[in-house]
Amino acid sequence: MKTCLIIGNGPSLANVPNEFLERFPTFGSNRVYLKFTPDYYSYLDKHFVGKNIEEIKKLDCKAKYIRREYASKVPGAIPMLQVGGLGFSFDPLDFVYGGYTITYTNLQLAYWHGFERVGLIGVDHEYKDAGDPLTWHTGKDKSHFSKDYYAEDETWLINDFSNTEPFYKLARRVYERDGRGIVNLTDGGALEIFEREDWRDW
Predict the structure, then answer these.
(1) Mean predicted lDDT score pLDDT of the chain
(2) Structure confidence at residue 24 (pLDDT)
(3) Of 158, 126, 163, 124, which is closest to residue 14 (Cα–Cα)?
């Protein structure tokens, strides 16, 4: 079975050895490269992608999927158009559904690449920081694997993960309908839509 990992950027990722991540083809996003450089990299967040272009240029990946407005700034990048609404794209090069999380983009990409089994790791699906969902904060945060994920003067948004759940449920239906599967390998966290397994058993 053609298997891959989709790497989230939650705090649980800090305790996953890179040697494990290296065992499978990987999809990762945003500033995951502070820990590990994935095979397939994506960055579509309109608020931040422009700030990290120089870092992204240096990454050695099989493919870089970058928000369309910034793709021309990254040599060899594949431009991505993100749309709203509840759906699942079978041709991400045309467009992808946002799903309120880059993990959903990577689920669409992994499907398109032909992967039959996807392991989600580091997808904590919760914020450790105090504050109401969809409010902006400035400075360091506790909800990512690295204390350096945001700069001291950087402003960031607490996601409302309840918005992502209809998309995850749709992804599960799409994968299972076609004889594929999504497994949650994350230690802890709040994502219960997918069946859980222990990454140590993989």
Answers:
(1) 94
(2) 98
(3) 124
Tokens representing 154? 């950087």
Predicted confidence (pLDDT) per residue in 73-103, tens digit: 999 999 999 999 999 999 999 999 999 999 9
What is residue 83's DSSP assignment? E
Q: What would the two tokens of residue 56 be?
A: 């992204």
Asked if 32 and 6 count as a contact pair (C-beta separation under 8 A), the reply is no
Checking if the pLDDT of 62 tops 80, the result is: yes
Cα–Cα separations (whole angstroms), residue 178 to 35, 151, 172, 199: 33, 42, 10, 24
CB 102 within 8 A of CB 48: no
If you search the block for the tokens 């065992």, which residue do you land on?
23
In the chain, beta strands by DSSP E: 3-7, 26-29, 40-43, 63-67, 78-80, 82-83, 96-97, 117-121, 136-138, 155-157, 181-184, 195-196
Nearest C-alpha neighbor of 113 from the set 68, 77, 62: 62
